[in-house]
Specification:
The chain has helices at about 15-20, 95-100, 135-145, 160-170, 185-195, 210-220; strands at about 25-35, 40-45, 60-65, 70, 75-80, 85-90, 110-115, 125-130, 150-155, 175-180, 200-210, 230-235. The chain has about 240 residues and is α/β, with parallel strands linked by helices. It has 2 domains: about 5-115, Translation factors (Elongation Factor Tu (Ef-tu), domain 3, Beta Barrel), CATH 2.40.30; about 120-235, Nucleotide-binding domain of ferredoxin-NADP reductase (FNR) module (Rossmann fold, 3-Layer(aba) Sandwich), CATH 3.40.50.80. The protein has a 7-stranded antiparallel sheet. Strands 10-9-8-11-12 form a 5-stranded parallel sheet, sandwiched between helices. The radius of gyration is 18 Å and the shape is globular.
């Protein structure tokens, strides 16, 4: 039994009304663990056949109530089959991680979206993706959708072996992983790598941990990268839950 089906979490009348009006009922078709700490979840719904999706867009999944939801970026969307896939990085003890760890085929959930969040198609030039383990799904989505311009990824990660396993599972090639350390030395290593990837035709997407995005944005600015070539979206921040 998951948080989505636990009768002790029965939503109130207003929550049920909002769910019925604005959310899509979806079924879990598949739930895999490509590496410890990661879940690859396939959702299906007839309504997904009518949806229009692009890489970087988000969906929100209700955690037992329309007022408590967690945001995910689908890694692909099959409108013909009415299916989408999510790669979830399960860190922390919040409701989103708990749902992803426990969810199983046959479970149902309520989904809002897809809707706008980040638009990689607006990046000027060839893409460099800076982020962390929560950015692996976006890297896959961009690589599949813009096959001729797959991003070069520099990602800080907490567990190298697990992140490598997920990268291999997704077939990602241009991915460099930097193990996170207590003094954020991995960000220094990423900063040293950036000049070798620089060029007038480069655009940068920064996602993942908010403090890292802020620091690497300053690094890029100091290296002369125009702000118009930088796009950023924080997926999480230490001590905060449920970033949209």
């Amino acid at each position: 039994m998951t948080a989505m089906t636990d009768p002790r979490r029965e939503p109130g009348r207003v929550s049920r009304l909002l769910t019925r009006l604005f959310m899509t009922r979806a079924r879990v078709a598949r739930a895999e663990t490509p590496a410890p700490g990661f879940r690859l979840i396939t959702l299906e719904s007839p309504a997904f056949r009518e949806a229009s999706w692009r890489p970087g867009q988000k969906v929100q999944i209700a955690m037992g109530s329309a007022f408590v939801a967690r945001t995910y970026s689908p890694i692909e969307w099959d409108a013909v089959a009415g299916r989408t896939r999510l790669l979830v990085c399960c860190h922390g003890g919040g409701p989103g991680s708990a749902w992803a760890r426990q969810v199983a085929p046959g479970d149902e959930c309520d989904v809002f979206g897809p809707r706008a969040s980040l638009d990689p198609g607006r990046v000027q030039g060839r893409c460099v993706l800076l982020g962390d383990e929560t950015s692996l799904g976006l890297a896959y989505a961009i690589s599949r959708h813009f096959a001729a311009d797959a991003p070069h990824c520099l990602l800080e990660v907490a567990a190298l072996a697990e992140a490598r396993a997920v990268s291999r599972r997704l077939g990602l090639e241009a991915v460099e992983l930097f193990e996170r350390c207590g003094d954020d030395g991995q960000l220094d290593a990423i900063a040293r790598r950036l000049p070798t990837l620089a060029g007038a035709d480069r655009g940068y997407i920064l996602t993942g941990r908010a403090p890292s995005i802020q620091r690497l944005s300053r690094t890029l600015a100091a290296q002369g990268v125009p702000g118009a070539r930088i796009m950023a979206k924080a997926y999480w921040a230490p001590g905060k839950r449920g970033l949209d």
